[in-house]
Amino acid sequence: MTIDGLGDQPYYGIHCASWRPAGVPRDVSWTPNQQYAIERALMRSEATANWQGDLFGGAGTVDFRSGAAGPLPVSWASRTEEAAGKTSPEEMIAAAHAACFSMAFSNELAGAGFPPENLDTKAVATFTKGDDGFRIRTMALTVDAVIPGIDAELFAEKAEAAKNGCPVSNALKGNVEITLTANLV
Q1: Residue 49 has what DSSP assignment?
Q2: Which pLDDT value is given to residue 14?
Q3: CA 125 to each of CA 29, 39, 86, 89, 161: distance values in angstroms, whole numbers, following the listed order
Q4: Residues whose CB is less than 8 angstroms from the CB of residue 116 and which lie 6 or more positions away in sequence, other chains included
Q5: Which pLDDT score, from 0 to 100, does residue 67 have?
Q6: Which residues pair with 121 in a beta bridge?
Q7: pTM, entire model
């Protein structure tokens, strides 16, 4: 099966050609709920934005097709000054990265036989102006994890694998410096 040109490539821990998480044999059957979850993971995500006015004095909203949030107010000031109850593209990217990393990390840990009891992940996007204009320069991921029985070396290995395999990390690679601090608590 080819999905949007992914072909036989692993996507978010899912092997698209066989609909199996990496490492799961082909003879394993899925329950209808598991199959639905896998198919849902391959769906497209959509959001819309409306902006009124100029960059500095204007304002807008962002809405998610899923209905999970929105409309959320956005403004230039929420990016460069005080949020004042409004969000910014950088905050939404940070939220996406924190969620994506947490999912990828839980998958890495479960695959190693250590499903996490709890993962608390924070992502901080740094938005600054340089000679090349405004850019997200860094994304700092910090995770505090409760994982019974895991040793520090395997924990660090799986955290790094999740950072490198997370689809949001992959979207940012080459443009944004991504750091990770992983704490086993």
Answers
A1: E
A2: 44
A3: 40, 30, 16, 10, 20
A4: 105, 106, 109, 110, 145, 146, 147
A5: 86
A6: 143
A7: 0.76
**Statement to judge: residues 105 and 132 lie in one domain:** yes
Q: Which parts of the chain have pLDDT scores under 50?
A: 1-19
Same domain, 28 and 51: no
Three-class secondary structure assignment of 152-168 = HHHHHHHHHHHHHHCHH
Q: What is the pLDDT of residue 13?
A: 46
Same domain, 20 and 50: no
Q: Burial-class residue 25 by CB neighbours within 10 Å (0-12, 13-18, 19+).
A: exposed
Same domain, 95 and 182: yes
Contact (Cβ atoms closer than 8 angstroms) between residue 162 and residue 147? no
Residues 125 and 71 in one domain: no
- pLDDT attached to residue 103: 96
Handedness of CA 145, 69, 14, 98 (dihedral sign): negative
d(CA 179, CA 159): 11
Our count of domains for the chain comes to: 3
pLDDT of residue 12: 45
Q: Determine contact, residues 52/59, Cβ cutoff 8 Å.
A: yes
Q: What angle do CA 145, 146, 147 make, to 5 degrees?
A: 105
- Rounded distance, CA 4 to CA 112, Å? 30
Whether 77 and 126 map to the same domain: the answer is no
Range of the domain at 27: 10-41
